[in-house]
Specification:
By secondary structure, the chain is α+β, with helices and mostly antiparallel strands. Helix content is 41%, strand content 24%. It contains 10 helices and 8 strands. It has helices at residues 4-15, 20-27, 31-37, 65-78, 100-113, 137-140, 158-166, 168-179, 210-222, 240-249; strands spanning 79-83, 89-96, 119-124, 127-134, 180-191, 194-206, 228-231, 234-237.
Length: 254
């Protein structure tokens, strides 16, 4: 991406009668780019149509906070924000091929949060990466940084916590869809001398980050879901009433 100063300088040189080749050599801009600027000088950038609600002196509310809460859960589980050489950031959410409905829901959430940004699906081994490029993804996900999430502190900004408090189930759904599952367990009991098998559903959430685990369990507490730490990285939800709540608001992946 070239800034407007570079674009106008190149066009001014062309306007002085200079050849595209000489202007290209002086400015380091390709002749094709300079030629295109003669038709349209404004950049066709990733964020040209809609300002970032988090930038500026007074940040505004997000257009779809529920979609953002869901996307935040997906990002904390299986997402990353990384820069490229043009100063634009790529948001990538890894989604398993086994859950096409989840892939669609992820793409819809990205589109709802940044309606004017293109959303792509990049195939990889056994999964698809839902991706979108913007200069402003770090504004939406200030938790981004070098290295793995479980190796650094993860905490929500106050404005993010307000959204999670207002849309807790969307946040929980995003976390479960990224790093959780709904399974059916079974056990046996001796009844009147006969061994009988019983099946029961339960939810699991698995993450290496103790901070993300805490965000998950704090939100479960806020909606009245009972949970138990199976170990330091696994949270189990098995009580019948709590599983029913999860089934109502989250449900199995599809």
């Amino acid at each position: 991406m070239y800034d407007m100063g570079t674009r106008r300088r190149a066009l001014n040189l062309v306007g002085q009668g200079r050849s595209l080749n000489s202007v290209s050599k002086e400015t380091g801009v390709s002749r094709a780019a300079i030629r295109s600027w003669q038709t349209r000088v404004e950049p066709l950038g990733y964020d040209r149509a809609r300002a970032c609600p988090r930038c500026g002196g007074t940040p505004s509310e997000l257009q779809d906070p529920a979609a953002y809460a869901y996307l935040l859960g997906l990002y904390l589980g299986d997402g990353c924000v990384s820069p490229n050489q043009r100063g634009v950031y790529s948001l990538r959410i890894a989604c398993a091929d086994a859950w096409p409905g989840l892939i669609d829901a992820c793409a819809e959430a990205v589109r709802a949060v940044r309606p004017d940004n293109k959303v792509c699906r990049v195939r990889s081994g056994g999964c698809q990466y839902v991706t979108s490029s913007s200069k402003h993804w770090p504004c939406f996900f200030p938790q981004h940084g070098p290295g793995k999430k479980h190796d650094r502190r993860i905490a929500l900004e106050p404005w993010q916590q307000e959204i999670v408090d207002a849309h807790p189930w969307d946040f929980i759904r995003g976390l479960i869809h990224s790093d959780g599952c709904r399974i059916t367990n079974w056990t046996t009991r001796l009844v009147a001398g006969e061994t009988k098998r019983y099946e029961y559903p339960r939810y699991f959430f698995t993450n290496l980050s103790k901070d993300i685990i805490r965000l998950f369990t704090d939100t479960l507490d806020s909606v009245g879901v009972d949970w138990k730490a199976a170990n330091r990285r696994n949270i189990s939800i098995a009580r019948k009433a709590s599983v029913a709540l999860m089934d109502t608001h989250v449900g199995p992946k599809h």
